[in-house]
Structure to design on (307 residues):
């Protein structure tokens, strides 16, 4: 880690070095697209760290073949999850800034140049950008939507959901890791939400409102099954600090945990648990009533469509 935390590289110093971290598991074609988008940046990168999270042997051999020049491939012996793989890259990075990218997403060519200039203009230590979301059902492309975002991440918004595509749009000063720490490898998903809540306790999160990335979105993907354990861990980690700041924030966060949990249970076909979570979300914070009602109607439409 750098000796002096919380420093933005000087505008008059040599251009800051950027390390790009890309975790990957059993993907190659989309990884090549992601990698090509990094190489096509108008702002040259210092290093590209691909972290193979225990891919199958044949795919691992293909990934290893990408090494060369600025590209380094770091391999984990067994699959440990996106957060653990990303942490390997974060620990190995030695640039002034670190940029995150998932292996199924890609950047537009001027992404880094615009984002670094934006961060220097605002003296920002951490930033994300607006992005295009490509929605899929299974492997079928449905539509592309522009995800419009505010100029900053606000705690009052973040306690309800994380829709900032942090793992493919974030750029931050490496010095921040000394205080923010790594992502929680015990979380098979929602690690970006948890991590961003931690970041916000240290520094503001600025948002470049120009879309600079294309992110795959799979609303119906069946995520890891341990829903209750994941949201219980988030509650244990974040609720006490939020309650000390504001009971309103804490209750909104608890309501959000139930609300987000309902989505996971719905995808898994656990209708009773899904309905219970929606009811608890409403009871915990009745002002989420409109969101809960909209989500309930959405579930009913999808359930009857499935028959």
């Amino acid at each position: 880690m750098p000796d002096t935390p919380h420093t933005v590289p000087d505008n008059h110093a040599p251009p800051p070095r950027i390390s790009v971290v890309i975790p990957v598991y059993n993907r190659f074609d989309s990884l090549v697209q992601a990698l090509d988008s990094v190489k096509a940046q108008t702002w040259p990168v210092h290093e590209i760290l691909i972290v193979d999270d225990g891919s199958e042997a044949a795919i691992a051999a293909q990934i290893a073949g990408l090494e060369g020049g600025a590209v380094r491939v770091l391999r984990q012996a067994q699959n440990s999850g996106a957060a653990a793989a990303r942490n390997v890259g974060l620990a190995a990075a030695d640039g002034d800034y670190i940029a995150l990218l998932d292996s199924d997403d890609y950047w537009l060519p001027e992404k880094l140049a615009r984002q670094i200039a934006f961060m220097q203009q605002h003296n920002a230590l951490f930033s994300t950008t607006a992005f295009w979301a490509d929605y899929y059902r299974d492997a079928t492309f449905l539509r592309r939507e522009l995800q419009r975002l505010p100029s900053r991440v606000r705690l009052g918004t973040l306690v309800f959901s994380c829709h900032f595509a942090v793992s493919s749009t974030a750029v931050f000063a490496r010095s921040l890791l000394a205080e923010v720490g790594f992502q929680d490898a015990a979380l098979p998903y929602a690690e970006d939400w948890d991590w961003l809540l931690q970041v916000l306790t240290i520094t503001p999160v600025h948002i470049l409102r120009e879309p600079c990335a294309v992110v795959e979105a799979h609303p119906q993907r069946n995520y890891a099954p341990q829903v209750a354990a994941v949201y219980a861990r988030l509650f244990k980690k974040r609720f006490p600090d939020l309650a000390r700041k504001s009971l309103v924030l804490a209750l909104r966060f608890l309501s959000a945990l139930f609300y987000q949990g309902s989505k996971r249970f719905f995808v898994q076909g656990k209708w009773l648990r899904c309905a219970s979570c929606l009811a608890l979300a409403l009871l915990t914070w009745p002002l989420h009533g409109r969101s809960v009602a909209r989500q309930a109607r959405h579930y009913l439409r999808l359930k009857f469509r499935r028959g």
Q: What stands out?
A: Residues 1-5 have pLDDT under 50 and may be disordered. Residues 295 and 301 are 10 Å apart (CA to CA). The first helix runs from residue 29 to 39.
